Amino acid sequence: MDDVWADTVRFFTERDPDQIARAADNPKRRMALVFRWYLGLSSGWSISGETGRVADYQIWCGPAMGAFNSWVAGTYLAPVENRRVADIAAQIMRGAAFTSRVNHLRFAGVRLPARCATYIPSPPRTDAAGGLDRWEQS
């Protein structure tokens, strides 16, 4: 911990020396500075791909990640290993088109049950040769 605190002092001495002075007699403030120091480094480790610190990676995403995980819960995209950028992009675009169509129908006065108005991501079908055939809504 002494080494970590020494690194923290070096870090904040260069950026905001007042922080170190305010933490001198306050163990909670020292702990908060160590946490800030660590979070700053862990974001950098993920950006630079520091292989020895993979377990410490911090990836800032805000509430969008939680909303996405809720959206794909119970679908083939729920397991992280099933997620591919192009597939997710296609699902988002299909979902946006689907939602647009539902809104147009509602605007025209059509009443739809909730199960018909909710887009659920479904995997693309493949043709006999293993290529993408077409998307199918389940």
- Uncertain segments: none
Task: Give the total of beta strands.
Answer: 0
> How many helical stretches?
5
Helical content stands at 55-70%
Major sheet characteristics: none
Instruction: Give the termini distance in whole angstroms.
Output: 54 Å
The general outline is elongated
Mean pLDDT, rounded to whole units? 88
Which structural class do the helices and strands define? mainly alpha
Strand content: under 5%
Number of domains: 2
Measured on Cα atoms, how large is the radius of gyration? 24 Å
Give me the strand/helix succession. HHHHH
Question: Summed up, what is this model?
Answer:
The chain has 138 residues and is an all-alpha fold. The protein has helices at residues 2-15, 17-23, 27-48, 63-72, 85-107.
Describe this structure as you would to a colleague.
The termini are far apart. Helix 1 (2-15) packs across helix 2 (17-23), helix 1 packs across helix 3 (27-48) and helix 2 packs across helix 3. 55% of the residues lie in helices and 0% in strands. By secondary structure, it is mainly α. The protein has helices at 2-15, 17-23, 27-48, 63-72, 85-107. It folds into 2 domains: 2-56, no CATH class; 61-138, no CATH class. The radius of gyration is 24 Å and the shape is elongated.
